[in-house]
TrEMBL record:
Keywords: ANK repeat. InterPro entries: Ankyrin_rpt, Ankyrin_rpt-contain_sf, Ig-like_fold, Ig_E-set, IPT_dom, NFkB/Dor, p53-like_TF_DNA-bd_sf, RHD_dimer. It holds the Pfam family Ank_2. One of its GO terms (cellular component) is cytoplasm. One of its GO terms (molecular function) is DNA-binding transcription factor activity, RNA polymerase II-specific. Residues 375-415 are annotated as: Disordered. The lineage of its organism: Eukaryota, Metazoa, Ecdysozoa, Arthropoda, Hexapoda. SMART domains: ANK (SM00248), IPT (SM00429). This is RHD domain-containing protein.
Amino acid sequence: MYQIGINTNTMQMNNNLLDEDFQEETISDISDIVNYTLTLSPSMDSPDSVILSPPPSHAYVSEEAYQPLLVSPGPSPETQDITPYLEILEQPTEKFRFRYKSEMAGTHGSLTGRKKRTYPTVQLHNYDKPAVIRCSLYQCNKKETIQPRQPHAHRLVKKRGSDEIDDPHEVDVNINSGFVAKFPNMGIIHTAKRNILPELESKIKKLKSDEIARNEGLIRSLSRREEQEVRGIMGEANKSIDLNIVCLQFEAFEVKNKIYYPLCDPVYSSPISNLKSALTGELKIVRMDLVAGPVEGQQEIFILVEKVKKRNVRIRFYELDNEDIEIWNAEAKFSDLDVHHQYAIVFKTPAYRDLDIKNDVKVFIELQRPSDGARSEPREYIYTPSNRIPSRKRPRLTSDDYSTSSNFPSNEQPPIVISNLSNLPAAQECDYQRPLGQDSTDPNELSLEIQKCLNSLTPEEITEYLTTLDTDAPQEIYQKSVTIMKAQSAFIPFSYTSHPLRNLDSEETKIITDFREEFLAFVKTNPTKKRMSMMLKSLFEKSADVSGNMETVLHLLISENNQNLLPLLLKVLHKYQETDLVNMPNIRGQTALHLAVQCHNILAIEHLLCTKADIAVQDLEGNTAFHIIAMENAPHAILKLLCMVKDEHDHINMVNYDGLTALHLAVKSNNIEATKILCENKADVNVEDKKTGDTILHVAVVDQRLEIVKFLLENSNVNITKENYAQYSPFKLANLLLRKNTPITRQIYKLLEIYMAKFKENQPLSPDDVKEKYSKVKIFTEECLDEVSEILDKSGIWYNLAELLGYDHLVRSNIFASSKNLLQFAMKEKKSIFKIRNFLENLDEFDAVECIDIMVLGKQK
């Protein structure tokens, strides 16, 4: 794969490797220009001035991507008290939109500092006379060489009225200002390729003229020889230029007779990257088609991304421990051909570090850009075990394993029992207490009851037996759930609302018959509790091994909705608390609880839960019992029953391998009752779909679920402003869907609009909201005008305000006697109140800004 060298002075690129995407961003060599270098600034051999500030975790910059800038932070310790030097107090923001000339007609954001409401700021130390500090736009080399830095071809402009002022920008400093220079209201204009050389020539000529003036003590035009030297430097600067990364150069001068004499070495800011460039813009994974896959890797995944360069992007998998320390990483496999038009990538997952994992492992996926080390926000990915369902070896038990003093009758042969449960999954504790009366019944008494039941072949006798055994039923959960069911009927048969999943084949029917016979033969021996437990395990293992789908007899009985043997088996399993047996999965990863939910068999679910059936077990698609309920549109009593289980580990919010929670599925299936029950039981309404970042409100809006939208807005703490991976909030999606022009889309939009208005009442106004309110105000009120004028007259800042408004020539002509005259003139000239407010904010005149905000907004922001 083509890579960009990150340890050299510039990005090394072979022209014959450049595709059409790179040709758009790269300037070709100028072969006919003399490669002559002229030193225009002091040597860059002094120590570092600025160490790059740590970027956000999602935009990591590697140590090698940008080396510490080789500029002077000041003198050595021996001369620190006497030598002037510059210090950068506030670095510029790391990413900023470089705009084209055609985009500069309107009002756009200015270059800010890294902190809120700040601008690039420097301070001159060890100097006590008036000075001038300049700010210019320069190239940002990845490593310094013996060559000095060169100006950048892009323009650093300031708006002054309707005029654009190019760099260098100057600020006068003195003892009153603390020798601090702040540079607000600057923007970066992207220079078109055809104008690169003229722009560089203009800037380098200016530098050459300044150097000659310092050396000769006079200002003059360049000679032909000097212009030839400038063209040579221009050619070198053009070769190394990176159109998507710039930096600021700050210089301090003493000015004599309009000649600028440097007081110290210049300092350079940290890099400023073009926010909308594929080479330097923000990396982002917008959507993934899969969020889980096998531990061996090689799974093909499609992702949608923000604009990337095919030869300058990697996909990195990594894992963090409990301390958030990275313990593993690997790169996905893809080629340049797998990057589609800079917005989609198809790749294959790497193998995980341990191929023998027993449980799912959560890792993260991120995009990484080699040229500057930038990273995207990570997305979650799940590695699943290669063998989710462990194989069961069945060593033959010895006679000692099941023999006791109570032997089989002489005319009966002991059943063949084989058991090994060492690989069974551990049970998950739940909140259900041991049923009342469980410990009061001797195991031998239960065996006699089982014999009595099994010796009867009629359904009526089975029903009678179950009635007598109800005293041993799971009391706590039984009473809660049956109360729900008995509201409609005084007698509830076991088959209430349940239905078979499928018809069993002859082999599966034989498994049930064999189980019944072997179990009956064993019960006649009046076994102890220990031997009964061993026998149950043996018979379950045997049925699972014989079945083609690794289904135990319990799976089969639930699947056919058996009305005779299933009720008895469930009570026996509950009596002996055979948790491991009820949690045994079939070949699809489904436990008896999964199947009972699919069958809508509420009484089976009751007994399974009281036998500590694990609600967190996921099938091969990652679905828990909660997911099945939401997908199958199961009776609400079943969901309420499941929600009674103590959920210390937040299982209600587990995501399946499609990245969805049960709540997502309930909304997608328009199951408003399930949605309500899940929300009432603390399901997280703001959990993201791991593929798209959608919350359930996003889903409800897109799928036009009007009643669910109403419920979520009125009865939950749903975040109505949360954006998905594509940066759409539910309100933005509703606005887009208005194009359908249907009654439901309009109603949903109106609902969200109302709640957005309520939300904004208690939130600080956004910049767009502030701008909209200011657009309706054209003049100052008399009260506000007097207050602002008084503030500006005291501080003297109004002279600076006049300069920003383009009235500095009028100030020099003494046209304005006070700030009030200035503001009145500005209103007469129809200057924007919003622009005046922002200028004052840039000048740190916050008291005046507050007065204007109160006038326009009616309250403080």
